[in-house]
Amino acid sequence: MILFALIASAAYYFFVAASNREIDSLAVLPFENLTGHPDLAYLSDGLSESLIDRLSELPQLKVISRNSSFKFRGPNIDVRDVASQLHVRAILTGSVTQVGDDLVIRFDIVDAPDDRQISGGQYRRKVGDILRVQNEIAQTASEQLRLKLTDSQSRRLAEKGTEDSEAYRYYLSGLVELNGPQFVQSRALEYFERAVTLDPAFAAAHAEIAWVYWSQANGSGDPREIMPKAKLATERALAIDPNLAKAHVVMAMVKEYEFDWAGAEREYVRAIELSPNLDFARNNYAFFLSVMGRQDDALAELEQQRIRDPTNQRMILLQKGIILSQARRFDDALLSYEEAHAVEPGKDVPNFSLGYAYAGKGSFSEAAGYYKKSVDLLGGEGKYSQPLVYLAATYAKLPDKRGEARAILTRIEAMGGYISPALLAAAYSALDDNDKAMELLERAYVNRDLLLRFIKTGYEYDGLRADPRFVDLTKRIGLSQ
User: Fold this and answer.
1) How would you classify the pairing of strands 116-126 and 102-111?
2) Residues with Cβ within 8 Å of residue 353, at least 6 apart in sequence
3) Which pTM was predicted?
4) For residue 253, pLDDT beyond 90
C-alpha cells in the first residue's frame, strides 16, 4: 500500500540514511490535492492522517500532531521554516494528482536543516490498485527496516489494515470528516460503518465507530443506549488488533463509564505505550487524571502533548485552563485563558470556560454574563445545553435571579431528549435543594451518566459533600474523597 510504502520508506531513511546523524523527529504535512476534485480530499488528507497515526507508534520518532502539521498547506512551503517552527528535523510532503483514470501519488522526505532530500517516490495506479501497490512497496522496504526496528515494529509497519480499497476509501473519508471544520457525527459514523460493512475485520474503522458513539453519549445522547454500542465496537477493534492504540483509549473511556477507574488508567497507559506520540491518548489521559484529582500529573501529561503539538499552543493553553479550574486554581486558569487569547487574538476564549472559572472564584455576575453568551451561541434558552444548566446554577447564587434559575430548570425538564441528571443536580444544589439534587445524582448513577465522573473535583457539588447520601454515592462510584 502506498501509505505503508511511505511509512516504510520514511522509517528506513530515518534509521539507515547516508547521513550519520539519526533523524529522530518528523512532521507529516497534508498532501496536496492537485486533482481539482474536492471529493478526493479523503485521499490527500486521509493519507497524511493515516501516515501520522502509523508513524506515531514508533518510539524512536517524535511525530508532530496533525493539529500542528496540518497548519502548513500549499505548494510553496519553506520546509526549513516549517521544521524550525515544529522543532523537527525531517519533513514529509506529498501530493495526489489525476491523469485520466489513474491517480499519481508523490511523496518527498527532506532533512530540513541540511536542506537534503532523503527520499521520494511516485506511483501511478488505478484507485482500486492502491492497496496492492502499497503492500508491494511496504514488503520490499520492511526487509530493510528490520535492520533497525524491532521485529514487532517491522511487522506492525507491514500490516495492511484492510485488503478492501473501497473500505479504506470510506475510512479515510471518515477521518477527514472527523477533523473537518464542520464535524457532523452522523456523517463520520456513516463512513466508518460503510468501511466495516465492506471489511468486518477493519480494526481501525471499528475504533473510530466507538469514538463517535462515545462522543454522542458525552453530549446529549442517552449513555444507556449508546455506550453499549461504543463498547461493542471497541471490543471488536481490539479482538482484531490488540495493539491498536486508539481502541485502547476508547476502551479507557468505556471503563470510566463502568466506574472502573483502575481499568481505565491501565488502558490509557497501554495506549501511550503503544503510540507515544498519539495526542488523542495523552489529551484524554490528562483529563482523566484531572477528574481523579491528580492535577499535577494531568498538567505533566499536557506538557508532553505540547511538545508534539508546538503550533497549537492556544488549544493547549485552553486545556490547561480547564485542568487548573478543576484544581481550583481559578486565577491561574484565567491567566492561562489570557495567554491563549494572546497567542491568537482573533479567536475568543470559550465563554463556558470563562464562566466556570469566574463562578469558581465566586464572581457570579461575571460568570452569568459568559454563560449567557455561550447559551446564545448554542441556540438560546429554548435549547438544552450544558451552559444553560450552569447559567441556572449561577443565577441561583444571585439573590435577584433565583426565580429565573428555577424557571430555566422548569423549561429544561420539559424539553425532550436526554438531559444529564448529573448536570441538573449541580443546579439544584446551587438552589440548596439537596433532596432533589441527590435524587438526580442517583438517577445519574443508574444511567451511568458520563458527567457523573466530575463529582470528585467539581466545585459545583461542594454543597452536597457533607450529605451522608453523597458520601455513600461517591463510595459506590469509587470516587471517595
Assistant:
1) antiparallel
2) 318, 321, 322, 325, 333, 337
3) 0.83
4) yes
